[in-house]
């Protein structure tokens, strides 16, 4: 049975390695822009993950016993900037953390959205990738069944 723990500083390297090997390459937005290869480091992406974990608000599911737009654009990686611009801009006007005590997830694919729903979360904002555009047209071409980014939350009583 899984248990949930706050990611501590001594866990962060293992979490980054896990994400590098099992998540980054398959995440729909990363995949849409070919951001990285499985198992290969991506400095900007891993730096943002490390900074997020350092805030002490990230959790990990453990088996058995075991921020701003300006910061995003400090990266010279255009593909990285595309991904985190949509994640930031879709969430920025929701003011979630001042409105609710909650658990929040940016569910970028159909499967992560289903997992969030099964955990009692709800979508508070959704943006279809085909409708998210810049001056050149759609920013992302994401394969089915992944058609939208959903900001999911579950209020904590």
TrEMBL record:
Name recorded for this polypeptide: Uncharacterized protein
Organism expressing this protein natively: Chrysodeixis includens (Soybean looper)
Higher taxonomy: Eukaryota, Metazoa, Ecdysozoa, Arthropoda, Hexapoda
């Amino acid at each position: 049975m899984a248990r949930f723990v706050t990611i501590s500083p001594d866990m962060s390297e293992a979490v980054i390695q896990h994400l590098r090997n099992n998540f980054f390459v398959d995440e729909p937005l990363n995949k849409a822009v070919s951001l990285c290869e499985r198992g290969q480091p991506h400095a900007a992406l891993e730096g943002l993950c490390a900074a997020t974990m350092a805030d002490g608000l990230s959790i990990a599911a453990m088996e058995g016993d075991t921020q701003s737009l300006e910061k995003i654009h400090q990266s010279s990686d255009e593909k990285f900037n595309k991904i985190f611009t949509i994640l930031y801009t879709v969430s920025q006007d929701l003011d979630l953390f001042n409105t609710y005590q909650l658990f929040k997830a940016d569910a970028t694919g159909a499967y992560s959205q289903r997992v969030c729903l099964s955990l009692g979360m709800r979508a508070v904002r959704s943006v279809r990738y085909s409708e998210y555009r810049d001056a050149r047209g759609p920013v992302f071409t994401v394969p089915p069944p992944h058609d939208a980014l959903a900001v999911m939350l579950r209020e904590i009583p």
